[in-house]
Q: What sequence folds into this?
């Protein structure tokens, strides 16, 4: 299936809808997930359009993984996490709901399961506070 630029992350990248941004460079943006599976759940989104990993340019992937690592390291520190889960879904059958490549970065705590994927909207004030914590850890 072809990339469709009406998806929500394309709109965020174009500045048409807001996000709680934590990082941006020429290649990518990172912001808080509005329906977090754990407190501090962030998304890393390359600016180059592709539906997911399957149709991505390997050169884009080569640039995005160091950023995924950078945000994951900062997230573990910012949220005092015991671990970090990184997820990336491909197509509906693979669990994907937004069809612009992105990586989930989710702080994890011993014995605590993840919340259900893309189910419950978080308060804007909580997202804003978590974005500030993550930005501070990235600074
Ligand atoms: P996927 O299922 O495609 O891997 O994940 C999409 C993610 O985007 C979900 O975790 C969902 O909570 C999140 N999401 C959906 N709509 C929005 C939005 O408008 N803004 C933000 N920041 N995240 C969103």
A:
């Amino acid at each position: 299936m072809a990339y469709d630029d009406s998806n929500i992350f394309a709109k965020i990248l174009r500045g048409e809808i807001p996000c709680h941004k934590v990082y941006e460079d020429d290649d990518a943006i990172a912001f808080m997930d509005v329906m977090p599976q754990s407190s501090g759940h962030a998304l890393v989104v390359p600016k180059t359009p592709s539906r997911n990993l399957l149709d991505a340019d390997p050169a884009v992937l080569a640039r995005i993984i160091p950023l995924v690592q950078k945000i994951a390291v900062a997230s573990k520190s910012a949220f005092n996490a015991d671990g970090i889960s990184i997820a990336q879904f491909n197509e509906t059958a693979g669990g994907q709901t937004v069809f612009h490549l992105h990586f989930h970065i989710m702080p994890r705590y011993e014995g605590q399961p993840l919340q259900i994927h893309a189910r419950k909207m978080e308060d804007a004030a909580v997202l804003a506070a978590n974005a500030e914590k993550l930005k501070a850890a990235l600074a």
